[in-house]
Design a protein that fits this description.
Layout: E1 6-7, E2 14-18, E3 21-25, H1 26-41, H2 62-65, H3 88-104, E4 122-125, E5 131-140, H4 146-163, E6 167-177, H5 182-202, E7 206-214, E8 219-228, E9 242-245, H6 251-259, H7 265-276, H8 280-286, E10 292-295, H9 300-311, E11 316-320, H10 330-335, H11 343-348, H12 360-363, E12 374-378, H13 380-392, E13 398-404, E14 409-413
């Protein structure tokens, strides 16, 4: 065939075809490999063209524009997953201002929420004792695989329930679909729902309803209700509480690197696998100590650790940079200056207890996570045993730092803080 002058029959040789003449030799095989590899090399190492710098609208008042250096609205490329959420500072300020406006307009103060973002979920009294725990989480389309997107979205939403020492029971789906041909949109939604149902079923959670709509971009989320019989036990001063994390950090920067075509495929696969892994097993093991916990998501490890400290009535956190587990490739990408679009706002929301150098490991503390691990405050005397049990069950279990009242804010050490 004139269109296939070299054909590999998988016998270590190749057929060289020219008109009616055919030869079968190893030299033809080497020639075919050279031609094929030269062609594939064109698509092996790709780079993104520099994106155009975004410009604010001409009529935008500079005094209201904020700091463009850390404002995601001025990012040339916006990140997905939980990295697309609103920042801690924006949400906290907006909630406080909204409460003031509602009160001034005559809303019953007893029906207004308590300002603050330290809690991961709503805790309600249940008939017969115990609590109902409710939470809602939505992520954007962090992967092009709709089945995996559904899995990750469900696992992500369930984690807030686990972090409250509760057992998930029911879920409502909240799905926005991007415009598409009807048959393609239906298949996309089918795969999203199938992945979601698998993750929910694994956790013993029943999907009882939901809402779908069509918007500019696909997002998937769930409102989850759980039950718990015992409230978590805050650590006492004499407990010398340490922090245990159950998943590696780095999903934000790895997926940002994937969008910019600088992340290795194995790194992306590892990040997606981590995001799709449930926190259920880790939560079951941690439940024996009933600790105060949070899940590490869009606000980054440092901000979530400080929120956890606030709930435990501690003013500061020490994190050992060398102890924090990172996903494959996360440190390499951070060293290259790759950042998720929410990264700088996460860093701005954290009070630092010391001057720091912006190393890759320090930067990882502010990387927004999608479906990150649990972060638990455990008495030092119990922590090593719990880490061993987590690892024996195939989970990540690492002591990464401690709570303290010796300072206010975050102190990041380069050695193992939990040993000192």
């Amino acid at each position: 065939s004139p269109t296939r002058p070299l054909v590999g029959p998988a016998d270590g040789k190749a057929l060289a075809v020219r008109g009616k003449h055919v030869s079968h030799s190893r030299s033809a095989w080497w020639l075919k490999k050279w031609i094929d590899r030269r062609w594939m090399a064109k698509y092996t190492k790709l780079s993104m063209p520099p994106p155009p710098a975004p410009h604010p609208l001409a009529g935008l008042q500079p005094e209201r524009a904020g700091d463009a250096a850390i404002d995601p609205a001025f990012e040339a490329m916006r990140c997905l997953g939980c990295g697309a959420k609103t920042s801690h500072e924006t949400l906290e300020t907006a909630l406080q201002d909204a409460i003031v406006i509602a009160r001034d307009l005559g809303a019953d103060a007893d029906l207004l929420p308590v300002a603050g973002l330290s809690e991961d979920s709503a805790i309600l009294p249940a008939q017969g004792g115990g609590n109902l725990v409710q939470s809602v989480d939505v992520i954007s389309e962090i992967t092009s695989d709709p089945f995996q997107l559904g899995q990750i979205a469900a696992v992500h939403a369930l984690s807030d329930i686990y972090a409250a020492n509760a057992t998930p029971q029911q879920a409502l789906a909240i799905i926005n679909m991007a415009p598409a041909r009807v048959d393609l949109q239906r298949e996309h939604l089918t795969q999203i729902m199938a992945g979601s149902l698998m993750a929910l079923a694994e956790s013993g959670t029943l999907l009882v309803g939901g809402h779908t709509s069509e918007t500019d971009a696909t997002t998937v989320g769930f409102a989850v209700t759980g039950t718990r019989s015992h409230a978590p036990r805050p650590p006492r001063l004499e407990d010398d509480p340490v922090l245990v994390i159950t998943k590696p950090v780095g999903t934000g920067v790895v997926m940002a690197g994937a969008m910019q075509l600088v992340a290795d495929g194995d790194w992306v696969k590892s990040a997606l696998t981590s995001m799709a892994a449930s926190n259920g097993v880790a939560a079951d093991l941690l439940a024996a100590d009933c600790p105060v916990m949070t899940d590490v998501t869009g606000f980054g490890l440092a901000r979530h650790a400080l929120n956890l400290a606030e709930r435990c009535r501690y003013s500061g956190v020490e994190i050992s940079l060398s102890a924090v587990p990172l996903l494959d490739g996360a440190d390499i990408l951070l060293d290259k200056g790759i950042r998720s679009s929410l990264h700088d706002q996460n860093a701005a929301s954290v009070r630092l207890a010391q001057a720091v150098t912006d190393t890759a490991r320090h930067a990882a503390l502010f990387d927004p996570q999608t479906s990150g691990g649990l972060l638990a405050a455990l008495p030092r005397a119990r922590a090593e045993d719990m880490v061993g049990r987590l690892r024996a069950a195939g989970q990540t279990g690492v002591i990464i730092g401690r709570l303290t009242n010796a300072w206010t804010g975050l102190y990041s050490a380069h050695n193992s803080a939990h040993r000192g």
